[in-house]
Amino acid sequence: QVQLVESGGGLVQPGGSLRLSCAASGATISTYTMSWYRQAPGKERELVAQITSPNGNTNYVDSVKGRFTISRDNAKNTVYLQMNSLHTDDTSVYYCNAYGPSYYCSGSVCYDSSIRHDYWGQGTQVTVSS
Q1: CB atoms within 10 A of CB 106
Q2: Which residue blocks in the chain are alpha helix, DSSP H?
């Protein structure tokens, strides 16, 4: 069973920074496309940042480009979201998502995976306010 546990949320002033972490168990994150979503009250959940598997390409919603950076530490099986120059409209619950696996390996041979699943963390609150 894949479990994702987010941490690092909190209250920060406009212009400040936070780093969110998503620790995964039951899955090797390098084989999953890992994403951060957010959802503010009364709004739909939106994709904020994504790092793909296996290529490690990154994608961001326009509103966070140049301010947020997604990364992963395969040794720690953890994905991060570094958030800088935070705005009040970044206030949301942030969710970690794992989609995959995109491939699996048997010995030295790897194969595309035709069966993929979505997994979600419980969310962490980020509040940007003065």
Answers
A1: 7
A2: none
